[in-house]
Write a structure and sequence with these properties.
Length: 383
């Protein structure tokens, strides 16, 4: 005969164990509570993004727009306009002088750096330099010049690192390019041509001490997972002011690019899908990427279908709310990783940014870079 214990028996048994092990139980409950709270806090991406921006602005002592408002209700504030400098306004609000609103410092630096770097793709001096190296056609020159810091690599690693190109486009250029000119010749030709192009645009050389601060800022960044950044950082300065300026911009540009590819990998977005999302976000005709990235219409259509199935694009190929949120998340993840350069520039950041933005204005005025373009570089707000 089997006797089943009563519920009271089990309660008394549980109470006995609770008294015997109460310290461990409280510790486990505390850990669970803390973990749940941290997860809930980090899961709110909009709050995380705001805190990340605030930390970035605090580190650089830079606020694009900082406003102090009187103690009025929301309805009263909606009719007010921010003023242009630190002074009392008729509305009673104060704001600091900045014009670029809601742009992360990392992205603002990228905009200037990318503009200086991009002469290597569009300037006649750079195109001629690739031709003089013996490379056959624009795309062999492109892949050879950009991949040269990695050494005489084949197509597979370049496809992975560059991320957005059709494999066949890469395979038609590499490794055959190294038979016309080896990597060390490509590196020298590329930098020299870019320096000449910047000089033609009217870009001025930066102060020697500022250049030292810039090169020092990238020297201590961990290279792990950033192959293009590490390879470009290893290229020594030559003493040619504009060539060295271009090489630093290229190193920083590839640091952000490596970070961007890492963000896409974490989120499960392949290179073509990222390209389609960028096109939808910026209103770029996707046919541009058939020529610039080697994709065929069927490839692009398949990517659009996949993104549509995940409700990231609507039936007309436009971003949905989820698609815009994903694009924002990609850029925010990239910004946070790229902030390492700014943190190491320290107080020199604003001087560097001012100099590079001035150089970018000159390059844009020369009309070298087309808009729109495959890099996703858009004109600065004041242009």
């Amino acid at each position: 005969m089997t006797i089943s214990p009563s519920p009271l028996f089990w309660l008394r048994w549980a109470w006995r164990d609770l008294r015997a092990h109460w310290v461990g139980i409280v510790a486990i409950a505390t850990v669970i509570a803390i973990g749940t709270g941290v997860y809930a806090g980090l899961s709110n991406t909009s709050t995380w993004r705001r805190l990340s921006y605030d930390a970035s602005y605090s580190t650089t002592r830079l606020h694009d727009l900082r406003i102090a408002t009187p103690a009025v209700g929301f309805g009263a504030w909606t009719s007010r306009r921010p003023c242009a400098s630190w002074s009392d306004s008729p509305d009673g609000c104060l704001c600091e002088h900045r014009t670029m609103i809601d742009e992360h410092p990392s992205r603002r630096l990228w905009r200037a750096v990318e503009t200086v770097h991009a002469v290597t793709y569009f300037a006649e001096e750079s195109i001629a330099a690739a031709r003089d190296c013996g490379y056959k056609g624009f795309w062999m020159g492109y892949f050879a010049f950009r991949a040269a810091p990695l050494g005489p690599v084949g197509a597979a690693p370049v496809e992975a690192l560059f991320n957005t190109f059709n494999a066949e486009r890469v395979q038609r250029a590499l490794p055959d390019a190294w038979g016309f000119a080896p990597p060390h010749e490509a590196i020298a030709a590329r930098r020299s041509a870019a320096g000449v192009a910047l000089a033609r645009c009217g870009v001025e050389a930066l102060d020697e001490y500022l250049m030292q601060a810039m090169y020092g800022s990238v020297a201590t960044i961990a290279p792990h997972g950033r192959a293009l950044f590490a390879a470009n950082r290893a290229i020594p300065q030559t003493g040619e002011a504009l060539g060295d300026l271009w090489q630093w911009c290229t190193t920083v540009r590839e640091h952000r690019g490596d970070s961007h590819v890492a963000a896409l990998a974490v989120l499960g977005i392949d290179g073509l899908e990222a390209t389609v999302l960028l096109a939808a976000d910026q209103g770029i005709d996707v046919t541009m990427f058939e020529e610039s990235r080697g994709w065929e219409p069927r490839h692009i259509a398949a990517a659009q279908q996949r993104l549509g199935n995940h409700r990231l694009l609507d039936a007309d190929g436009r971003l949905t709310d989820d698609g815009r949120e994903l694009r924002s998340q990609i850029e925010d993840m990239t910004d946070r990783q790229a902030f390492g350069v700014i943190a190491r520039l320290g107080q020199a950041y604003e001087m560097v940014l001012h100099s590079l933005e001035a150089a970018a204005v000159v390059v844009n005025a020369a009309g070298i870079i087309p808009y729109p373009n495959p890099m996703g570089l858009d004109l600065p707000p004041e242009a």
